[in-house]
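Incident log, structure service

09:12 report received: a user says their structure output differs between two submissions of the same chain.
09:20 pulled the input from the user's history:
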Amino acid sequence: MSTAPARTKKPATEWTVADLQRRFGPIPFSRIRQNPPPGTATEEDVLWLNDHEDRLCELVDGILVEKTVGLEESWLAGRLVTLLSLFVDPRNLGLVTPADGMYRLSQGLVRIPDVAFVSWDRIADGQFPEKPIPDLVPDLTVEVLSRGNTRKEMDEKLTEYFEKGVRLVWFVRPRTRVVDVFTAADQFARLTASATLDGGEVLPGFSIVVGDLFRKPAGPGRGKPNGKRRKT
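09:34 re-ran on a clean worker, output below:
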């Protein structure tokens, strides 16, 4: 039976619950992995948890922060992956990755955006990356916010994305059905149902009406009396 990577170091200081909440905001404590101890985690731990426990964790300052995604958030991320792929793939613009695509933004910082687009210009030799955690900074990252996300957590992630070279960030907010479009960490537009979400300078020509993005599918006969299908 495979075991978790052996610990080879101890944290310089012990992280308390208060320390972690100061670091990430009032994040649910269950999202912070305690094994390995906060401050000691490595990329090896990120991969082991994904392979053996089917857990997706981002790595920040030696701390594993688990991503939690509900059904609606997962559906929205998948919908955006499909829509972006239908635009990107025929034009051979680059790669669109789903919610388990890992990116090493810098040494010791691994982020897993819910959706990302990377142009071929950013990929060495134009070859598909073979490493499970490649040294890549996406052109576009998308985060579908869930109830477990804190403002401090997302503000920090936003700042990191732009500092590392991401050009465009979308924060998709299912509860309010709006999309925040960031072209810089301190520059954004909030798009409501009637507005059009587009790819800007990153993916010129891509667009979808925000209300259509959030419109959920319905089964046959929905809305008809007693839920019965109309006879034809």
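09:41 both user submissions now match this output. Likely a transient worker issue. Closing.
09:42 reviewer note: Residues 224-232 have pLDDT under 50 and may be disordered. Helices lie at 17-24, 43-52, 71-91, 151-164, 210-214.
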